[in-house]
Design goal:
The protein is an alpha/beta fold and 376 residues long. The chain has a domain of 210 residues: FAD/NAD(P)-binding domain (3-Layer(bba) Sandwich). The chain is 34% helix and 27% strand. The chain has eleven helices and 18 strands. Strands 3, 4, 5, 11, 12, 13, 14, 15 and 16 form a nine-stranded mixed beta sheet that branches. Strands 6-2-1-10-18-17 form a six-stranded mixed beta sheet. Helix 1 runs parallel beside helix 3, helix 1 packs parallel to helix 8 and helix 8 runs antiparallel to helix 9. The radius of gyration is 21 Å and the shape is globular.
Length: 376
Amino acid sequence: MNDSKEIVIIGGGLAGLTAAIHLTKIGLKVILFEKNEYPKHKVCGEYVSNEILPYLDWLSLNISDLNPTHISKLEFSTADGTKVNCGLPLGGFGVSRFALDAFLCKKAIENGCIIIKDSVDNVIYEKDSFTISTLSSGIFVSSIVIGAFGKRSTIDQKLKRSFVQKKSHWLAVKAHYSGEFPDDLVGLHNFEGGYCGVSKVENDTINICYLASYESFKRFKNIEDFQNQIVVKNPHLKLIFARSKILFETPLSISQVSFDKKEMVENHILMIGDSAGLIHPLCGNGMAMAIHSAKIVSELVGKFSFGTIKSRKELEERYIREWNVNFKKRLKMGRVLTFILQKQKFYKLLMRIMIKFPFLIPVIIKQTHGKLITVG
């Protein structure tokens, strides 16, 4: 067994790795469990809002080392091809999860974080302490556990979290391509039952990632048939796919993507990133929110560890409060957009309004994004 003073993080995605970097930076011991090797591709839009840049600087993470694209424009189209363009209020950058996660992992290890490649089988809380069981590395004990295990995991099922009990209506597909696409643009193009995000990441690579309702997808045998018969009915997507060549052997996909409300604290585990709440990808802010949530939990865990926060109850209450202040309205807007996307009548009405009054698009974007994150 390990020293119970070490903080355990379950999951090594954006949120988990960022929390590991932050906590080790302020002098705490961290063990992080991640079942996958780095680097690894993930189903993700791979656009990151610039709101997190001051925080990354504070963590001594120089994102320019990854040669990201700098994105300042949005192109939006309806399923029939009607298009509108606008600027992005804060802008952002494009970088693959393949590169970014590996970059964060390297920094966490340099800071002294212990990363163990293993799956966590169960977490039990009793007598103010956690017992963490792994598949092959034994049992660990910790006073703090941070849950960063993503959209849906074994631990979610063991905890009987409410969203796991419900069937989700969404699946996501992603692949990288070579081809023609502007470096400074993110495209959001709708099709029947979903929408597709297109933007550049490092190495002149195009990331194409789309979200589709199960209802629209289930009529087809495979991803290729769905793309050829539904997705490319949008003329802009037809042109993008025609000009692009897939770099993956096959597209990546995930099903059961849930945007239902989640609890930020479950059985005293502090949830961050997608484990705490998943915003609709249409909002384009999931990666920044994951990193921001790591900042919030790390600052509070630091105060708890050094005695400024006196009790677990106070720690949990403050975390829930700060999460809600920063993300509750954004997630609510994401759920509203999800509802509209599922209801064709409301969706077509919103599209007509946005096309007639394009200045409303940046206003909606601001509702799902934060301001530049300050540190200290």
